[in-house]
């Protein structure tokens, strides 16, 4: 847990330039027993303290993941211009990820969901791939949009 927190802090500090905000992870993103986020309503848009925005398409009723859990999700990722850079939906196969092994925006955001939920996350570059981007698919300083359906928190 400490190593994951240190890696997240390193990533965030490495992404921030002199004029870039460096936002520490929220307690929900790092604490294994963090209190549940506030109740959300379908169709509403919310903001986190780190600057990420999310819209609730479907409220879930199942288990809520913690920062160190593995999850099974369907997702669709786009750049601000609508270019799709990755999509399990297009591949027709859900993906599995450890929440402490993905971009900080995913780690923070997916923990807000419950199994069965579907949210849209608008993730600022400093919670995504930072100033450098991901060569070949994500440009520098890119804000990313992900539609994520949390299918299952894996054992």
What report would you give on this structure?
The protein has a single domain, classed as Chitinase A, domain 3 (Roll). 19% of the residues lie in helices and 28% in strands. The chain has 4 helices and 7 strands. It has helices at 2-15, 27-30, 88-91, 104-110; strands spanning 45-47, 53-58, 70-79, 84-87, 95-98, 118-123, 144-153. Strands 1, 2, 3, 4, 5, 6 and 7 form a 7-stranded antiparallel β-sheet that branches. The two termini are 17 Å apart.
Blueprint of the fold:
Blueprint: H1 2-15, H2 27-30, E1 45-47, E2 53-58, E3 70-79, E4 84-87, H3 88-91, E5 95-98, H4 104-110, E6 118-123, E7 144-153
Antiparallel strand pairs: 1-2, 2-6, 3-4, 3-5, 3-7, 6-7
Short description:
By secondary structure, this protein is an alpha+beta fold.
Morphology: globular
Average residue-wise pLDDT: 83
How big is the Rg? 15 Å
Number of strands: 7
Question: What is the CATH third-level topology name?
Answer: Chitinase A, domain 3
Helicity range: 10-25%
Low-confidence runs: 1-32
Structural domains: how many: 1
- Report the total helices: 4
Terminal-residue CA separation: 17 Å
Key words describing this protein structure:
Chitinase A, domain 3; 7 strands; alpha+beta; 155 residues
